[in-house]
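User: I'm putting together notes for a lab meeting next week and I want to include a structural view of one of the chains we've been expressing. I don't have a solved structure, so I'd like a prediction I can at least talk through. The sequence is below, exactly as it appears in our construct file.
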Amino acid sequence: MNSLTAHVPVIGFAAHSGTGKTTLLTRLLPVLSAQGLRVGMVKHSHHDFEIDKPGKDSYRLREAGAQQVLIASPHRTVWIGENVEPQEPELTELLQRIVPGNLDLVLVEGFRHVDFPKIELHRAATGKPLLYPEDPSIIAIATDEPLDTTLPCLDINQPQAVAGFILETINTHRTGTPT
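Assistant: Thanks for the context. Below is the predicted structure for the 179-residue chain, given as structure tokens.
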């Protein structure tokens, strides 16, 4: 399994908008955590967003011209970076900010046009075409309909099944053989 980080497996979730990537991930993360995995997340957004609120110190410092703001407390740390010119984020650069010693796995939502192992999410009701025929980095499909493919098909409504596939995949990555 190719990985964008040397020590932590990276698996993406790719789908057309409205397929339920975030919904599945919010159901999948507790299942993986219950297995003892420390999971990091990288999420791509096509929209401008704010994580700090007007009036808060971090917001005021960023608005005053700081290109990077790091907020730290005993409970969490947040890094905020400003892009001088709007530009698409590079997954490899984002993964370099992940602290590998604290994680067993990184899940990525989005970045469907980047070449790294991904699980495609597909729902028949969206009417959207499958991505896998054009993307050789897709390693499985989580779907709500039977598909005629040689790729593993998982039930998109069963996060335990998706977690099982991920665990098998990362164990194979670590040992070189399926467990």
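A couple of points you could mention at the meeting. The beta strands are 10-14, 39-43, 68-72, 77-81, 105-109, 118-122, 138-143, 153-155. Residues 48-87 form one domain.

User: Perfect, that's what I needed.
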